[in-house]
């Protein structure tokens, strides 16, 4: 775990749209740790943390019986205690592969009540500008390459998560791990990148405060078994669990005249002109215009026109999320979906309520049954 520390989150970080300030992470091993916080009255407390590996116990015959997997499913790792101003407490159990996972897990051994700190993100349709993956950073276990820059000392460079080494640093497996690469066919089936199996994975767990009307003055961490690293804590209020997004929806994004839409994704799979905080933009494609009034007169295989200034955006978001548009404007998802306000740049796309069927040389309008 110590070898993977350079890949851990540090400084000002954002996980699933939630900000964290990471200065001195807590290493929880054999003694309890209490941190005093500013008096906080909040419904939700979010912990950014991870667990060291817990090798399975081997009996006298050399066998592993009733294995829980490498992640030690359900093992009681620690207790997190909210301490209120009136000296009362609320205790929550933290179990492996429920509220916290391994810093480097095998494929499929994820958590049931926590999520990887890097939210799922879409891939680019083309291979020209793929997002930067962290999964191959696991090569840090390899030896340092003999190819070093002139005058540089050998050994692993101290780099932050997701950063490339400069030309003056050794060309180690760290640098190789973060090179851009074309994604293989398997991940293309879903067009979604889910980070797991990297050198360091933090998990985001949301604890609902049983007494939101009380003020929390401190948080105590009690170890039970193994080692945990708590990188940060955030707190706040939300209409529902902050990590639970709604179903996929669509909206029409209109651009000003003569302003082209930039389809390129940056290394974090973000578009420059429209983003979501508590959610994710799944895809953004030009609106297709069909000859509705002259449908019967058109030839077969006639391709629709593409509206360069009207983009269909598919997204999934928390009800309290906000769209962040170009020119630093913000639109609440709740207002957009409930039509509380009219927005010229963004309008919701509703599901169709009727279907046109072409039959017997005429169009028949079929309405759904109530």
In brief, what are we looking at here?
The protein has 3 helices and 22 strands. By secondary structure, it is mostly beta strands.
Describe the structure.
The radius of gyration is 25 Å and the shape is elongated. The chain folds into two domains: 2-236, no CATH class; 249-351, no CATH class. A hairpin with a 4-residue loop joins strand 6 and strand 7 (89-95). The chain starts with 10 loop residues before the first strand and ends with a strand. It is mainly beta and 370 residues long. The protein contains three helices and 22 strands. Strands 3-13-5-11-8 form a five-stranded antiparallel beta sheet, with no helix packed on it. A four-stranded antiparallel beta sheet has the order 4-12-6-7, with no helix packed on it. A four-stranded antiparallel beta sheet has the order 16-17-14-20. The model is unreliable at 136-182 (pLDDT under 50).
Order of helices and strands: EEEEEEEEEHHEEEEEEEEEEHEEE
Q: Could you estimate the helical fraction of the residues in percent?
A: under 10%
Q: Show unreliable segments.
A: 136-182
pLDDT averaged over residues: 79
Structural class: mainly beta
Please tally the β strands and state the result.
Answer: 22
Rg, rounded, reads 25 Å
Beta-strand percent range? 25-35%
Task: Describe the largest sheet.
Answer: 5 strands, antiparallel
Give the distance, in angstroms, between the N- and C-terminal Cα atoms.
58 Å
Please, how many helices? Answer: 3
Q: Write out the strand line-up for the largest beta sheet, numbering strands in chain order.
A: 3-13-5-11-8
Number of domains: 2
Shape: elongated
